[in-house]
Each structure stands twice: as structure tokens, then as C-alpha cells.
Amino acid sequence: MDKIIVEGGRALQGQVKISGAKNAALPILASSLLTDGTNTYANVPDLKDVESIKLLLAHHGARVETVGDTVRIDASGLNNHEAPYDLVRKMRASVLVLGPLLARLKKARVSLPGGCAIGARPINLHLKGLAALGARIELNHGYVEATADELRGAEIYLDTVTVTGTENLMMAAVLARGVTVLRNAAREPEIVALAEALNRMGAAIEGAGTSVVTIQGVPCLHPVAVSIIPDRIEAGTFMVAAALTRGKVTLVDCAPEHLGACIHKLRLTGAEINIDGQTIHVEGRGRIASVDIKTQPYPGFPTDMQAQFMVLMSVASGLSLICETIFENRFIHVSELKRMGADIQISGNSAMIKGVPSLSGAPVMATDLRASASLILAGLIADGQTVVNRVYHLDRGYQSIEKKFARLGAAIWRQK
Ligand code: EPU
Question: What is the pTM assigned to this prediction?
């Protein structure tokens, strides 16, 4: 398996282009199952997870064609309602085909995704919501089997704010008879992006981006051409890297309006951040101030940026507290960061970080995407060489991360 090698100690300088958002691309590509005809998606990131969803859609009978960052999907040939274990186990977000398959074929058989490194991650709320829309749900042999004679609009209250749960229910409800109201819906920019894509297909969704989403069902949808929004987590990762290395980095083609919490917290650490349209300039200088964070659903501080921010705090000037409220086991990076010299104590869902003057390079690995990204960040400032193993996780969610860092002047390369 590939490794990424980083030699620390260089301040990042220059410009980096932010790719399309993984977590917007996955549901939007899945929504292609809702209609016949060719949908065209631009600015699709080149990632392992995007490969996985394309394979899955093809497995369901869709024709998928990729040219550069444009993906065309025609689901006229949709003929298979089963998402098998082998495809779903590679990527939990495969569960996003459940809503569209049920809406379109009135039946779906999707492998239960199971837990993963960061937590148990049940899909009970997806299933409760689909049942409220009139689906019969059975769990057999590790699969969710959902059938419906007809989906009917319903009032659905989500006990926990769930991103893919909100997305699945939106995609099921767009073709249901009558009105669906999702309460306590997720408000992430990726939800808004999916709702916009669906509305351009002819759906009638209102309130996306607020906690109450109303969906008036329509009889059918038509194909669209949409561009995937910029990846706010990739952008946040590069912003932290600039601050951490005391560098000066310009992020282009990003969406500063989606990065409110990150920008606010980074400014408190002392980083200078200037915004100019879709461009963000970040300059890190002097001492890094300690800042507490608590992860929350959007617009709170994103759990997907917690590990990266922890690296910054591990070399800050004092004590900071990071509280993870979304996933029960999202401190996988801590033991690896400690091996690199960080001073971190975990108690329940909180981590107390005492800033140290420097980190030291080491062989490391992590079993989660964002944890792996945090180890690259740690490598950028560590003394000597850091070897990040199991690069597979990084390739799931960051497009050419080592090339982007190398262009900013980092000493980083991939070893096959
Ligand atoms: N939850 C339930 N029941 C459900 C669904 C969720 O209890 O039916 C709980 C989860 O266990 C978790 C919380 O609700 O404690 C929030 O989970 P959510 O469903 O929002 O997470 P997700 O939809 O599975 C998406 C992103 C994640 C991101 C989270 C939180 C995609 C494809 N994935 O996951 O992204 O961390 O929202 O923002 O959109 C990543 O990109 O690295 C990543 C993990």
C-alpha cells in the first residue's frame, strides 16, 4: 500500500485550488437514479469515494462516463435494486442510494453499512423516516429490505441531526405523493447543494439550509447539469496547514461562506485571514494562541475539522479543550499525535491539549480519513521525517493531497 512521506519544517507559500466537495458529490451523484436521461455533473473531485459511488450506480444499471472532472450519469437503464455488501462496506455513504432506489423502483435492498473507526453510526433515523413515508422495512441477513406500494408525504422529526439521513429522506420524498416536512433537519451546505440540484431536476423543496425542510412531491424529475460546490473541509485543512507552518497561502475556488466556524476559530489562534470573493488568504505568524472548540452540526464547528485543529493546538501556547459531540470515537489520531510528541489527555468525549514547542517525525497511521489528514499536518511541522501509512483513507477524501502540499513548498511525496 502507498505511503506518504513528509519532511517537516517548511512554511507553506503559494496558491492552492480547492476541489469539489466529496460530501456534496456523493448524494448528488446518487440523485441521478431519480430520473431517466443524462445528468451532467461538473467539478466532481477525483476521489476513491467518488469512484465507489460511480461503481455502485453502474451496478444499479446506470451508464456512467467520466471526462476530466465532469461526470455524466444516465439511469434510464436502472434495473437492479440491490446495493451489495462488497460495495457498501468500502464506503458507508453508499447508503445514499436507499432513498432514490425506493422512490424510483419502490424497492431497495441495501447492505447495512455497519460501524466504522469513528463510531457505531447507525442508520435507524433513515429507516424510521422511510417507514413514515410508507415503506415497509425489514432487516434480513445484514441487508435493509425496503418496499413500498407508494410513498406518501409525512411529517418526520429527526431525533438527531443527521446529514446523510436528511439527504436520503429528501431524495425519497421528492417523488412521494403529497407534502413531507423534515424537522430537525441537517443544515450543512451539502444539504443545500443537494436540494438545489433536486429543484433543478423539477423537485419542489423549500427550507434547505434551515432545520425545517418542506418537500412537495412531484410525479417525475428531469435530468440536469450542475456543478459541485467547493469542499469546505479540504479548504479548512489547507487553512490550518498555512497557520500551522507560519506560511502564507491563498485558497482559490473555495466558499468562504461555508467556513464561518473555522475562520472564526483560526482568527482567534492568531492567523490572519482575508476573504476576497471565492478566495481566502491565510497567513500564520508568531505564536499560536490556544482556543477551545466543540464540534457541532453546521453551522457549528465541523467534526470533520476536529483532528486537523487538534494538531494546531498541539503546538499552541497553552491549554485547549476539544470536545467532540458528533461521533463517539473520533480521537483515533490522538495516540499517533502523542507518538509524535503531542501532550494530549482524553477524558470521555473531550481532549485536553497542552501545547508543546515542537513535534517529532515518526511512522504513523490512522483508520479514518480526517485523522490521516491530521497526521500529514503534524508531519509538516515535525522535526525529521513522518511516514503516513494506509494512504487509502486519504485518497478517499482528498484529491492529490501530497501534490497540492508539494506545490505549496512542502517536502512531501508518495512512495508506491
Ligand atoms: N445517527 C444516528 N442515527 C442515524 C443517523 C445518524 O444515531 O440514523 C448519529 C450518528 O451516529 C452520529 C450523528 O448522528 O453520531 C451524526 O451523524 P450523521 O448521520 O450526520 O453523519 P453521516 O451523514 O453518516 C456525514 C458526512 C461525514 C460527517 C458527518 C457529520 C457524508 C457522506 N458524510 O456523515 O463525513 O462527519 O456527516 O458532519 O456526508 C468525512 O467526510 O470524513 C465524514 C465522515
Answer: 0.98
